[in-house]
User: What shape does this take?
Amino acid sequence: MPLIVIINPQSGARSTKAFFDEHVHPLLKENNIVPDRVVETERQNHAGEILADFLREHDGIVDVILGSGDGTLNESMTVLAQTVFTGARAQSSRVHFALVPCGTANALYSTLFPPPQDPTDAAYRLQSVKALIQRSKTVPLHLAITTLSSAPALRKRPEVKISAVVVSTSLHASILKDSEALRAEIPGIERFKVAAEQNSTKWYNSHVKLLPAPGAQVVQIYDPLTKTFVAHPDSDADGEPIVDLHGPFSYFLATVNVDRLEPAFNIAPLASRIPPTEATLDIVIIRPLRSPVLEDDTPDARASFVPTLYKVLGAAYQAGSHVDLRYQEDGSAGTEGDGLPVCEYIRAGGFEWLPDFDDADAHALCTDGAISVIESDGRAVCSAASPDGQGGFMVWSNVVVPLLLTAMLSMELGSEVFVIRASQNEASQDLIALGTSHSVEVFSIDQNKFTPVAAFHVGQRITAIAFSPRSVSPIRSQDDWVIELVAASSNFGLHLLTKTPMLDESVYSFGGGLSGHHACVNDIAFCGGLGEDSARFVATVSNDKLLFVWDLDPSPASPKSSPSLSMSPERAQPTAYTIAFRHALHSVCSHRSSSREFVVADARGSIFLTDWRSDPDEADIDSWRQVELVDPHALATSTILGGSASWRIDNPDIVGAVFGSRYSIWDISKLQGGKPLLSGVCQEGSDRFRWCPTLPIFAISSCSPAKGATISIHTLTPSTTTIALAPRPHFIRDFDWISSPTPRIAAATGRRVILFDVTVDT
Assistant: This one.
């Protein structure tokens, strides 16, 4: 594939060329990649002109390594969009960019690759180039297409602007306009803060029309109470879907593809927390006269609103928390009460901006950093668009966020969710159990909704859950359904939870005191196999270094026909068979192909295939009790406690595990001394490994908030896709795959449960 390297030596701190000489060119040489051309830009729009010429010289898709900021990327796309190609090139003009962030803010790169504490780190800045070298994945860029029209009487041709990051007016446009004059004096992002102070008391008079996206059919607005998007109260799909807003405005900014404009300035956080399923704009609006203490636009009112404005912008630097700020009775911004949201956070297909004739500042428009002026009696109309099958712009990335989410649903509970478990049993595949700070709540997932099925009050924080194979969903059988689980709580106790049509929620506690665990129970798994024993025996593992296999039905007299173990009034307490290990145990799992083995993961990076039914005193030389699976690299870096193992459902020979920043896959039929068949690097602090029940892919999450609440989807090749569900400091508490023809994941972060389908190219 043709490759061109374009360098803007004037970007950011003007160190682009040095970075390429020290890092990019050596990396390409190391991988035997020789670019067809290496060019430095010399003037505005030069990058686009260079790229247009390169496209004329080569057929098919071209790769571009672009060392610049967002502005040069915008110039390239704008020039290409305005260029008329002929011949075969007229049918296809697709360009794949590998971005090297060398600008001031690098908004697009920071969104595709969530930044570490030091965003200037060379390894971080090379991720897109490495994705190109590995031919991993490309992310299609949606575009915001803005048409600037003059007054109709002038009969002038409209001017078209293309953006891949931001379209704004009001304060943000004023900041960009004034900050350009400060570039030589203050080359870093501090100049934006200086420009903000210079414009803080300005309000902007305009009329706005919000236009719905085709798929949604209505304009959507974020509701801080439910933490979801809802239909705007003035948008009716069956009537008038367009929403009219009147100023004055303090802030009006629309983003596409990004959730931030600087590495830490997360102004549109819902673009990644609740990703759209079509090309849309996330629009952040502040209208000061929504404040309960302001009635008119006066100099005093403008000055008094500045602290509120600063609090909103400051909260955007705090993981995008500004979206939940509400007006308090005194006009200040806070998270308490039921006042109007300070920010109107809109998701729409586009907007019209019609500035007042006599407000010159309201006529400024920013498109990816470029400032334009809307003429008197003119307007700006912006709409979101997706690339077609032949053209468009793509970015090389290992991170694909909304483009893999073909459906998404979220729900907020009244307390934090610590554990998620989905039933993998055929008769109850729609059921999911959520462990909170005091209870286990069971939901049925049908179509695109969570339906409550049962709520078991335990009174302690839940630490682990497992569905019994005995469970049958009410959807499967309205008269003979059974909800049965075993849960562990923070006081080290175990609880058999049951509900049937004839029995309300029942909590039967066992395993307490001297007879059970004496440290946190980290995981639970019912015995494998397909017989009656699969629901009779359940394994628990704990920080006390013990594997307990509990017999839930130890009495021979227990009626086999009982639909639920806990319904027997005189049933005996479960008894346990104990196996000791050297280190704390973090996970346990079984396989439906066998009722003899459990896979157990300890806290130091070892995985044990344990035959719990074998006699430890058996002298037969062919007998065995445990097979240890080891990743030497994980053992060598075992400085933190954690880890998780999972047995591939469709193949009993394959076991996977994650520990710290490394995952491993073993083929039990080819043990090779217990060493992994393959292994790889993942995010630091990774502690959850789950095989997909329907495809040969797996997912990993991390308990570290360093990169926010993310889940990485892996195939059995080096290909990795990371899905960001919430920004820092959020993290994934737990997740599980839902058994369905299309891969589906339910994940918990804070009080929210997020359900999404995943489309993966395997």
Remarks:
- The chain has three domains: 3-136, 143-385, 402-559+577-758.
- Residues 3-136 form a domain with the Rossmann fold fold (CATH 3.40.50.10330).
- Residues 299-316 form the longest helix (18 residues).
